Backbone:
């Protein structure tokens, strides 16, 4: 076995150890619950869960060639399948047989963990026979009617069964010698530890958060390598295209009457040059594409694995909130209750640290400005006690939504207008022309306050501006909704992690900039003739909404040598929205989304307007990252004249590499499939179950789907059916790779719309790759 293959198999075995410990613990927990619950619905769901865990462990053990574990799991799977279908019922001997089998499973998995074989003196065939005996007895007891004295009524922590057990003799499983051998083998381990603790100790280390932060920063720097590979790959593709064009041009010239001697000289030199270098260049291009694909996976996997170590639940930060609410409610003689939901959701520890102060400020504002005293609330017909609700949810894009809601008096629009007029940011003639949301969004402007006097808690008009600024720097956004005498709701959207930064790369006045994706609503193109002037300001009408317009180079005070174009040519617009303020910026070119790391400009450039930092592109050039909030505020103070029309964006060709989506709940088999398919030259994305795979299909394009069948949340049959229900996926090839071998299962797979059905027991790498290539 070569070193590379041995390394891969060791990696698979390590994955299996971790996965097996989880499956084993879930099986044990399920057996205990099954034994102690008398509720039929709980028993049914627990049987289903154990069945899935055993099935997944069987498939994973087959992938790493652990045949004894596979056989034991197969025996357990048969019994639980019978229970699932209602063919048999739970009886005490059957539960005893399950526990004896789990004891053996414990020993087998410990052998794997210790890299040993046959450490225990056990008899696998006899254990499997015990399961068969108990299952047959369970099936017989299903329809046997006996007297009341035959009903199984165990005491203590045992399950209660309504079915009668059989009166025929059943083998005494506790007295069979092989089972006793299993018990003795288990006792030979002096520590008698659970397999989960063994595995966790071997694969878990304690490390300080400082070291983890350093590791994360180092891993983030690898993003530059990924970008560099993309840049050089495109350069090689362009050179390759020029080589091909040279040959075509030379042949064309030879047919257009060029001097024959000159044709012979040019064409001959070109032909020799191409013959010498074209093959090597093509090979280099293919190698670079492969290297780019591998580097992308390595960087993404490394970042994902490390950033998860920095995720903390919101509960670690929210634990202080009840005390703050209690103290402030006492100070202001108000009755307030706090309700928190979703605090188990995890987010980057750095985000928790940064969002703590803004969140406390919003809650203090709710208590000080929003919620009334008990007397005031009763006079309004409300209950005497006010309420603050904090809820945390997470959407399919992994962004975290933090909602802070109170049932107070709401925000007074008139007070915002008065405060804005005092600061000179709102003129009297503009008041009637602004929508309510535009007025309420002014609360995030520095100096705006609705408090009639200044306290140690509020009234200075700085807090909300600081809240919006901090959230924006985290790559998030904040919106508010308020109703008079009903309350105010703040909705904060945050990324789950700060591991990477994503932004839209644009060109303006021959320079490149990046604008954070979190502030980008949409990139659109319009004709110059579609621009309308409303009250001396340039605007566009987008989805029945009037949106202000500004030229990015005007905001950044840069000059341009662009020539004026006709009114029919297209302008490229990037629409931004921050804190309910929306404006569209005209740019020369929109180059797509970029991934990078934000670098500070340093203390010397701390107060540069409209700039948040800088990052490095794949070609090594430094690009400024713009601050969306400051851009919008700057645009509100400038009237764009449009003395020129910007260049039309050139199109960017896309590569035609095929993309494969894998849906598989077993990490061992998922890794195996991904390795096979990637080595065959395909792009691969993996999903842990059918539901995640279906969500990926809604936002990304794939050329083929490879799916397991037995998966949590949505199985392979359901995933295939949902895909086929959508017309746009009518021709999307689907391959089911599963351990279900019956003819009925194969028939169902074909009926729901699968194009191929591959059995894991006879699985070969070549079979899968050939099937993929044939379907594509």
Residues:
């Amino acid at each position: 076995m070569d070193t590379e293959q041995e390394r891969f198999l060791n990696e698979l075995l390590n994955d299996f150890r971790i996965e097996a410990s989880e499956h084993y613990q879930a099986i044990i927990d399920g057996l205990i619950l099954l034994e102690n619950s008398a509720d039929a619905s709980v028993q049914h769901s627990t049987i289903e869960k154990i069945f899935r865990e055993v099935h997944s462990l069987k498939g994973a053990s087959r992938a790493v060639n652990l045949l004894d574990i596979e056989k034991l799991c197969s025996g357990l799977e048969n019994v639980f399948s019978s229970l699932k279908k209602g063919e048999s019922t739970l009886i005490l001997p059957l539960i005893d047989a399950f526990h004896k089998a789990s004891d053996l499973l414990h020993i087998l998995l410990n052998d794997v963990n210790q890299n040993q074989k046959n450490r225990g003196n056990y008899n696998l065939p006899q254990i499997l026979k015990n399961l068969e005996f108990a299952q047959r007895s369970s099936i017989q007891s299903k329809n046997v009617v006996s007297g009341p004295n035959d009903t199984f009524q165990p005491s203590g922590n045992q399950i209660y069964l309504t079915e009668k057990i059989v009166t025929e003799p059943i083998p005494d499983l506790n007295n069979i010698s092989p089972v006793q051998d299993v018990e003795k083998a288990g006792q030979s381990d002096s520590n008698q530890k659970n397999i989960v603790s063994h595995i966790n100790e071997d694969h878990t280390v304690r490390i300080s958060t400082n070291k983890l932060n350093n590791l994360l920063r180092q891993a983030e720097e690898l993003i530059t390598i990924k970008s560099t590979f993309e840049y050089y790959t495109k350069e090689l593709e362009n050179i390759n295209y020029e080589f091909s064009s040279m040959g075509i041009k030379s042949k064309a010239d030879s047919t257009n009457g060029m001097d024959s001697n000159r044709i012979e000289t040019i064409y001959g030199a070109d032909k020799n040059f191409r013959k010498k270098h074209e093959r090597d260049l093509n090979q280099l291009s293919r190698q670079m594409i492969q290297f780019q694909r591998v580097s992308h996976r390595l960087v993404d996997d490394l970042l994902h694995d490390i950033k998860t170590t920095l995720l903390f639940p919101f509960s670690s930060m929210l634990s202080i909130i009840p005390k703050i609410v209690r103290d402030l409610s006492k100070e202001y003689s108000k009755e307030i209750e706090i309700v928190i939901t979703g605090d188990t959701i995890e987010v980057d520890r750095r985000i928790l640290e940064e969002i703590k102060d803004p969140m406390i400020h919003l809650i203090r504002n709710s208590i000080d400005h929003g919620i009334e005293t008990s007397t005031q609330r009763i006079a309004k017909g409300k209950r005497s006690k006010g309420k603050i609700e904090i809820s945390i949810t997470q959407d399919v894009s992994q962004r975290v939504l933090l909602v802070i809601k109170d049932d107070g008096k709401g925000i007074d629009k008139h007070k915002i207008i008065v405060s804005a007029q005092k600061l000179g940011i709102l003129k009297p003639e503009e008041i009637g022309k602004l929508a309510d949301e535009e007025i309420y969004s002014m609360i995030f402007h520095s100096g705006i306050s609705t408090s009639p006097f200044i306290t140690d808690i509020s009234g200075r008009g700085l807090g909300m501006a600081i809240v919006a600024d901090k959230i924006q720097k985290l790559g998030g956004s904040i919106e508010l909704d308020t109703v008079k005498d009903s309350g105010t709701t703040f909705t904060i959207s945050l990324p789950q992690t700060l591991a990477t930064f994503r932004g839209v790369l644009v060109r303006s006045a021959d320079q490149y900039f990046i604008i954070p994706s979190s502030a980008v609503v949409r990139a659109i193109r319009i004709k110059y003739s579609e621009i309308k002037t409303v009250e001396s300001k340039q605007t566009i009408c987008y989805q029945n909404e009037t949106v202000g317009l500004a030229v990015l180079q005007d905001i950044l005070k840069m000059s341009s040598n662009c020539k004026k174009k006709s009114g029919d040519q297209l302008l490229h617009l990037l629409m931004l929205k921050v804190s309910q303020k929306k404006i569209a910026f005209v740019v020369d070119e929109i180059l797509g989304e970029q991934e990078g790391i934000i670098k500070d400009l340093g203390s010397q450039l701390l107060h540069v307007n409209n700039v948040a930092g800088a990052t490095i592109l794949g070609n090594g050039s430094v690009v400024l990252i713009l601050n969306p909030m400051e851009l919008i505020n700057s645009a509100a103070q400038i009237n764009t004249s449009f003395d020129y029309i910007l260049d039309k964006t050139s199109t960017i060709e896309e590569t035609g590499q095929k993309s494969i989506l894998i849906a598989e709940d077993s990490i061992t088999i998922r890794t195996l499939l991904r390795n096979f398919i990637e080595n065959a030259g395909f792009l691969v994305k993996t999903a842990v179950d059918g539901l995640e795979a279906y969500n990926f299909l809604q936002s990304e394009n794939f050329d083929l789907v490879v799916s397991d069948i037995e998966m949590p949340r949505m199985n392979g049959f359901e995933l295939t059916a949902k895909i086929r229900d959508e017309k746009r996926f009518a021709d999307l090839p689907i391959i089911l790779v599963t351990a279900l071998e019956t003819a009925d299962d194969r028939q169902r797979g074909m009926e729901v719309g699968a194009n191929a059905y591959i059995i894991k027991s006879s699985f070969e790498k070549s079979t899968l790759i050939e099937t993929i290539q044939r379907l594509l």
Notes: The CA atoms of residues 446 and 465 lie 5 Å apart. The longest helix spans residues 260-308.
